[in-house]
Amino acid sequence: MKSKATGCDWTAWTLHLIFGLVVGGAMGIVAALRLLKTHLIEDADMVLVALGAALVVGAASSHWGDRLWMRPSVFSMDEPPRSKSSWIASSAIGGVGIMTVLLAILHHPSSSSVRLVKESAQSRYWAFPVLVIVAAWLIWSWQSGTLITPMWIIHRDEHPALFWFFLCLYAIPLLGLAWLAVL
Predict the structure, then answer these.
(1) In this structure, are 65 and 122 located in the same domain?
(2) Which of 18, 37, 60, 130 lies 20 to 30 Å from 93 when distance is taken between CA atoms?
(3) pLDDT tens, position by position, for the chain (183 residues)?
(4) Domains held by the chain: number
(5) Domain range holding 12?
(6) Do 101 and 22 belong together in one domain?
(7) To 5 degrees, how large is the angle CA 116–CA 121–CA 127?
(8) What is each CA distance from 134 to 14, 33, 182, in whole angstroms?
(9) In terms of pTM, does the model score above 0.85?
């Protein structure tokens, strides 16, 4: 018989997963619209991106629980330790979500992107310096734990989910710039 300390509270795990799926679906729609603007996906692939993002955020939410959404408080109760089976389940769900997003991006026929680049041959000249500046800003934000945007300053310790969401959201155009710089 397993002790309560080594087991997993599957009800709490499931509730965190469901909440993460809903929030991740909303984040996925926003990310899919950004990917659509940068011509990395087509209209039909928006559902795959939203589904993949929902799975990734749901997996993160089920694994970290309340710690994903808010920092620990003096008044918060200690969460029970996660079991290996719950970690495997969360990792599998997150892995499927990442593969779904990558499938949507890689499924996109590159003909429209190549045509876009060939129509504006000067796009390569500005793409590389902008790519370096944006990449340096994102790396600095990741290392320092502070994301400075035109509208907000987001600290990783205070709002972890918001920090990672905006960091990933600002990294999406970086993929499009990298595509332009390479071609």
Answers:
(1) no
(2) 37
(3) 444 455 678 888 889 899 999 999 998 999 888 888 877 788 888 899 899 999 999 988 888 887 777 776 667 677 666 788 888 888 889 888 888 887 787 766 553 444 444 444 455 566 666 677 777 888 888 888 888 877 778 888 888 888 888 887 777 777 666 665 555
(4) 2
(5) 1-108
(6) yes
(7) 85
(8) 37, 20, 16
(9) no
